[in-house]
Amino acid sequence: MKSYAQDLRNNATDAERRLWSHLNRRQLGGFKFRRQHPIGRYVCDFVCLETSLIV
Q1: Residues of the chain with pLDDT under 70
Q2: Burial level of 12, CB count in 10 A (0-12/13-18/19+)?
Q3: What residue spans define the domains of the chain?
Q4: DSSP string, 14-40
């Protein structure tokens, strides 16, 4: 599952890249987001674990 998530990160769409540019480095309210993060049998595109928010 980890390598699949890594493949998704490396082959992001334009929309994913643009959204990530606003979410990374705690730019949105100081919250830390992760990209293509596996949770169970799913891979979430963007997730903030401290607020339990999945995009």
Answers
A1: none
A2: middle
A3: 2-54
A4: HHHHHHHHHHGGGTTTT---EEEEEET
Rounded Cα gap, residues 29 and 6, in angstroms: 26
Q: Taking a C-beta distance cutoff of 8 angstroms, is the pair 30, 36 a contact?
A: no
> pLDDT tens digit string along 16-30?
999 999 999 999 999
Q: What local confidence, expressed as pLDDT, does residue 26 receive?
A: 96
Residue 43: enclosing H or E segment and its boundaries?
strand 42-48
Gyration radius (Cα) of the chain, Å: 11
